[in-house]
Amino acid sequence: MPMPDAMSNEEIVAAWRSLAEQTRTGVLLTLRNGHPFGSHVPYLLGDDWSRVYLHLSRLALHTQHLLEDARVSLFLAEPDKPGKNPLALQRINLQGTASILPPTDMAYESVKQRYLAKFPQSQMMFGFGDFALWELRMQDAHLVLGFGQAYQARSTTPGQWQHQKPDTKS
After folding, report:
1. What residue segments make up the domains of the chain, in order of their start?
2. Is the pLDDT of residue 168 over 70?
């Protein structure tokens, strides 16, 4: 079976943005005793994939993990449906580090308002002392749009995607 041609950069950007709009929650991966630990979380993207915002409770295990080790990954996937090939679902895996976005930060109020517009049911939690906005500064992205359509990007050039060609060396 021949490999499909690489998509244009504009098509890739449109595809990952569409995927991010379809999915309001993702799997946050933190480190627990040196092992990956997954949690289901609502998220808000910044201007691109290199900034992600979460509103987390200090009581949650994933938040306790982040306070010990800031390394993080966020995994978003196209919803599975009957008739779809689950191995061909679109997905993106982002890796980076997390830190609390303090209320004194210039971006805090804007991020909070955008978060509440997306998740209005979170309004009450912004009044709870154990909740904080977290900023995930993502350095790497791995995007799969189907068979033979895997792409990578770096935060230094978040809009530039490189086709991940299979290794044909044996």
Report:
1. 9-163
2. no
CA 161 – CA 109 distance, rounded (Å): 31
Residue of 153, 145, 159, 148 lying closest to 18 (CA atoms):
145
pLDDT at 4 (0 to 100): 61
Q: Residue 38: what residue type?
A: G
What are the pLDDT digits (tens) for 82-140? 999 998 999 999 999 999 999 999 999 999 999 999 999 999 999 999 999 999 999 99
Q: Which residues contact residue 142 at a Cβ distance below 8 angstroms, ignoring those fewer than 6 apart?
A: 92, 93, 150, 151, 152, 164
The answer to whether 32 and 69 are in contact (CB under 8 A) is no
Give phi and psi for 169, each to the nearest 5. -75, 140
Phi, psi angles (nearest 5°) of residue 70: -80, -5
What CATH superfamily is the domain 9-163? Electron Transport, Fmn-binding Protein; Chain A (2.30.110.10)
93 touches 19 (CB < 8 A): no
